[in-house]
Description:
CATH class of the domain at 246-460 and 485-592: Mainly Beta
CATH topology of the domain at 246-460 and 485-592: Methylamine Dehydrogenase, Chain H
Radius of gyration: 40 Å
CATH architecture of the domain at 246-460 and 485-592: 7 Propeller
Number of helices: 7
Largest sheet: 4 strands, antiparallel
Distance between the termini: 109 Å
Helix content: 10-25%
Strand order of the largest sheet: 11-38-37-36
Structural class: alpha+beta
Strand content: 35-45%
Number of strands: 38
Amino acid sequence: MPPRPRGRRASPPVLILEDEDLDFEVSYSEGEDGDDGGGSDSSSSSSGEEPEEGTDVEDGERSDEGEEEGQDDSVAEGCGPAVQSRVPGGATAERAANAPTCPVCMEPWTSEGEHRISCIPCGHVYGRSCLERWLTQRGNASATCPQCGRRFKHKDIINIYAPEVAVPNNDLEKQLWFCRQKLESLEEVVLKQGKLLDEIIAEKNHRSADVGVSKRQKIAEHSDGRTYLEPSASASAASASGNSCRFVLLKELSFDGARVMGIDASNQIILASGKAPGVAGEHVLRKISMLSSHEARTIQLPPDTKVVKDICILPGGSALFASLGKRLSLFSMTINSVVLQCNLPVPAWSCSAHDCDSHRVYAGLQDGRVLVFDTRQPSRPLHSMAGLSKHLVHTLHSVTDNSGSKKVLSASAIGPCMWDADGNQSSPKLLLEDDNQRVCFSLACAPPSSDLLVASYRPKADYSSGDTAAPSQAYLSQMPTQSGAGKLGQHTVIRRTGNASFAEGSTCHSNVSEVRMCKSATVPCGNDEHLFAYGDESHRGVLTWRLPSLGVHSGLIPHRQPILDLRYAGSQAGGGYLGCLSDDKLQVYRVDR
């Protein structure tokens, strides 16, 4: 037979597999791999002999090396296998190799079963059933990789043991991305329109509340023969010329089981504590952004925290809270988690910290003591300061005196006291003489100044068993109660008259709770003017009075339940925020000066 001329020759017709699950084509040129007759693999196939098991690896390696060398030479000459994968959409073999599905049938491979993920010596990955069908088409002896043309045998198919094969759906991901983009754009529109609507509703409600309460204003005569002007919003118009403070409702949310709150004015975040829904609901924190229209984010607290009684916002995006679980906890609003806990000997009812020294924190305890901690060394308190009585410390404020010294204001049933922040005093100083006929349940001031305070009192309850029943009143105040119109209480201005002396000033009256220790607040209004705010029990809304005269200023939108907590937070940009919390609702007002 005459020798064949060297050089490139036309390829024979393309071999097309007819199986519906195989959608690829492979073309071969005549040569070493063209007709299965020129290589050792084809000769072994024709004789039906299988290589011995003991020589599989070594023979296979030598055979593969020889084939690779032959392929390299033949490709250089243009006579080797020309391989091409055909995938839907006209994708190339390279794209098919990188696809997360089998590049033969374009179906997802699996971690087990007939179409489990498998590879051949060249490293390309297919579904096992596709490789086996391809070998069957080639006579069960050997075949070439549909992507690179390297030969393989049935024994060369290697199962890849993957615990899970994840196949992303690119179409669904695109649809999801499109939906998210559309949702974000819609949220921006809703947020802008929601803010505008809130301002319109707030202005309307503010005017209607002023008119409605004005009609109900009356002079009340009590059993002691004195008469009092019940606080109302009727004086708001008259006081507008003397006080420019204005409240605009920014946010109103429905809550279930809310207790106390804190406002981070710099980051415009609100923290509110409460109980999760359900009979055995856990105590949780709810984090609300004043800039977002989304609902509050619920954050689980450690199981030993129990009821949170006070929240103090610290600089740098953290918050301090005191709880009945004998814990003083530091909460990070960046990671939404409790990062530090100080163990206490008894339950804590109040907490505080200085703005200029947030590492030093204070806890007011149920037995009348005030403990001082350094958050960098939380294992034990720096100081333990004993109070003038065993009554629980329900309020703490970190302030300074006229000389700039750091002080701590506290309040218990006997009244407000002043403490040395460094623990150098043997005992605190009682600001007013003890009045055995009344019980102090709230103290408002405008930190860091301690020049102007307002203490709230209610008549002392007549317990037949004496003072031994007083602690039970503290535990009663843990739960909100339907106390109707409450009882007549008083709010008393306390003004500084010297570096260490204070005097009682003006007094006004309102309806207060018989058992709960509701919070009050002092609201700066610019030009060294302030308002006093308290949740009136009969009005079930916040009423404000001008300081220091305690003249009636205005009333805010009432709630269905009594007000439990009031917090004011000033903003560095000017103005501030007033938050009021009841058992089922949270309101946040912007205070315009």
